[in-house]
From TrEMBL:
Binding site for substrate: T299, V300, T301, G302, R303, K304, R305
Lineage: Bacteria, Pseudomonadati, Pseudomonadota, Alphaproteobacteria, Rhodobacterales
InterPro entries: Adenylosuccin_syn_GTP-bd (IPR018220), Adenylosuccin_syn_Lys_AS (IPR033128), Adenylosuccinate_synth_dom1 (IPR042109), Adenylosuccinate_synth_dom2 (IPR042110), Adenylosuccinate_synth_dom3 (IPR042111), Adenylosuccinate_synthetase (IPR001114), P-loop_NTPase (IPR027417)
Protein name per the record: Adenylosuccinate synthetase
Organism encoding this protein: Thalassovita taeanensis
Xref: HAMAP family: Adenylosucc_synth
Gene it is expressed from: purA
Amino acid sequence: MANVVVVGAQWGDEGKGKIVDWLSERADVIARFQGGHNAGHTLVIDGKVYKLSLLPSGIVRGGKLSVIGNGVVLDPWHLVKEIAILREQGVEITPETLMVAENTPLILPIHGELDRARESGNAVAKIGTTGRGIGPAYEDKVGRRAIRVADLADRATLETRVDRALAHHDALRRGLGLPEVDRDALIAQLLEIAPSVLEYAAPVWKVLNEKRKAGKRILFEGAQGSLLDIDFGTYPFVTSSNVIAGQAATGTGIGPGAIDFVLGIVKAYTTRVGEGPFTAELNDADGQRLGERGHEFGTVTGRKRRCGWFDAVLVRQTCATSGVNGIAFTKLDVLDGFETLKICVGYELDGVALDYLPTAADQQARCTPVYEELPGWSESTEGARSWAELPANAIKYVRRVEELIQCPVALLSTSPERDDTILVTDPFAD
Ligand code: IMP
């Protein structure tokens, strides 16, 4: 049986929700392996809209096991809230359908405060984060002062962990002009929320390995996009986790050999939220049109997304760093009606041609796009369910993208409706 990793191959918001939902119907286990409640997935099932940001998408489908892996940073209060909202919508969530890795680090209220204080106070350091405390929580993880799910089970352990964390945070807060943390209040808050989290705590690495041995299909659900990867993204304008497919293994505790297929989700044009370089960005009527037609507003923050032409250089690079076997190409219909389309096929940096994104931030910012023009199409591609329903120029566009990124299309999505999908290769096929 195949296990599939789904990753965003651009800056996030590629339309992963629909594809993950489509695949989760075929999977037995759905696992989140990085990020936190900075993600935003909207699922429409039988006309009902579900909004998820922390829980794996499989949670809304009965009979599946949803797993939050250790690679995630977990805000326990958000977890409880998201579970309550879904329950109100009729979704059944029990320790049999949801498991949280015991070694998952927690996001505390101080992480959100720190995140927002940094973003508002100092324009030099501004990343344009979601303000959810993601970065500070990961800092504590690698700084070995995080409070993890398992620490909630024992008061004495929790107190020691909190003291360790606060030795760092109080010093930092003094520097930022924030009041010191009320230690006892924080411990009380954590003890209060503890039972609601511990109910779902499990040795996820063990469960997943057993499921794998039993021949169950596991879907690893990535959040954000590969260009926000802490190592391979547009650093420092990135999120604080590894987003690329290799993280599915370390973020859950399953060996890399368990990954049989990596599906990269790729939007037919490019968007990004927040600060940072964006070579193929459009600040003109075409960019405006992509944003309007594509409804490019952030699910979590409501921010307007920056829009640009498809950048084949970036996607070729992210397909390589994640070892993408096939892509799900989304939102092709947003390009309907453009007379001419452009694809970024290379960069120029100080007069030198480049076929990859350089690493240094200043060089990334100075790159200018080299475009190739393709004829557009006037017909609608929305809702197409076979190649025969697509205009010839739309097929040419897709084929050119495949050539440039050196990766085949496995799925083509032509509307938010789950069945408006052209299947070329089933990622779960043996
Ligand atoms: P953080 O993850 O909140 O620290 O934000 C860091 C960067 O990642 C910012 O540019 C955010 O806009 C971006 N980001 C975080 N989560 C998402 C997402 O789910 N979609 C798109 N961008 C995201």
